Amino acid sequence: MGLAMANNLIKAGYDLTVWNRSSDKCQPLVEAGAQAAASPKEVAEQCDIVLAMLADPAAALEVATGEAGIAAGMAQGKGYVDVSTVDAATAQEISRAIKSAGGEYLEAPVSGSKGPAEQGTLIFLTGGDRSLFDRAAPLLDVMGKRSFFLREVGNGAKMKLVVNMVMGNMMAAFAEGLTLAEKAGLSKQDVIDVVGLGAIAAPMFALKGPAMAQRKYATAFPLKHQQKDLRLALELGQEVQQPLPVAAAANELYLQAQSAGHGDADFSAVLEAVLQQ
Ligand SMILES: NC(=O)C1=CN([C@@H]2O[C@H](COP(=O)(O)OP(=O)(O)OC[C@H]3O[C@@H](n4cnc5c(N)ncnc54)[C@H](OP(=O)(O)O)[C@@H]3O)[C@@H](O)[C@H]2O)C=CC1
Ligand SMILES: O=CCCC(=O)O
């Protein structure tokens, strides 16, 4: 995700300084004109606005608040926009670290996968400093088609978890439907066609269904990240005392798929867990 988003910023003419834990992954961006930095701190020292796209809450915290992290290079006038999918408490902790270092903070997780990241059609779900939202808007407009400002830090994370919980549930239900159809003697392609014409038609089913019918799962959204998002959504449900039995059942399927070695495959590989029931 980060590579595609950074590429679009370079193409739009922005002067980029990049860092990634595995530094070889920065090479295509350096070849496209970006400068490589030795640490997140160095990126923050060199840039007015820092963007980060990281795996999970642990990675987001380490990169933002670690010894050579973003906060260590922050100063007044600089801003940090974290587009990773994390929980609200993590976003709030990062916000405190950035602000006590004098910077501004915006959480901005994205809806939309690899295709929208490449095409610059992501949807940003933001919360935090309104002035940074306004300052970063031209960058978000290069990478996305719409940006929502949801006020205080944590609301972007919560919105993202709600959306991804629904998405994870939908994919698990679709996998069950395909499996039931096949065992009942129906064609999976017929199921995809019928679903695509009715009220439950979804771009996701049309996009991923044909490959799922062949048990192929080229990674756009890694299954391990979908399971992380369901875990975080279930934790949010506990915080606000909302039972989420459908999401809890879906989470079990993603955990099973992950244990069976499909964590780095696309999240549609949840079908493999359904097939094992
Ligand atoms: N893929 C998708 O369709 C979408 C993903 N997201 C969210 O975006 C985020 C990134 O997703 P995606 O790009 O697919 O994931 P990847 O797994 O491809 O990338 C994860 C990134 O996080 C880095 N990272 C992981 N752990 C650490 C750490 N401890 N310290 C420093 N860096 C670390 C990785 O570095 P390294 O290269 O060294 O491993 C890599 O750059 C996730 O939060 C995901 O939920 C949101 C919308 C869509
Ligand atoms: O977090 C991943 C979202 C994927 C998508 O919105 O298609």
Main attributes?
N-(1-d-carboxylethyl)-l-norvaline Dehydrogenase, domain 2, stress response, globular, oxidoreductase, 8 strands, 11% strand, NAD(P)-bd_dom_sf, NADP, HIBADH-like_NADP-bd, 6-stranded mixed β-sheet, Rossmann fold, binds 4-oxobutanoic acid
Write up this protein.
The protein has 277 residues and is an alpha/beta fold. The chain folds into 2 domains: 2-151, 3-Layer(aba) Sandwich (Rossmann fold), CATH 3.40.50.720; 158-275, Orthogonal Bundle (N-(1-d-carboxylethyl)-l-norvaline Dehydrogenase, domain 2), CATH 1.10.1040.10. Helices cover 56% and strands 11% of the residues. It contains 13 helices and 8 strands. The strands form 2 sheets. Strands 3, 4, 5, 6, 7 and 8 form a 6-stranded mixed sheet that branches. Helix 8 crosses helix 11 (223-239) and helix 11 packs antiparallel against helix 12. The protein is globular and about 65 Å long. The mean pLDDT is 98. The protein binds NADPH dihydro-nicotinamide-adenine-dinucleotide phosphate and 4-oxobutanoic acid. The site of 4-oxobutanoic acid (SSN) has 6 residues, from loops. Belongs to the HIBADH-related family. NP60 subfamily.
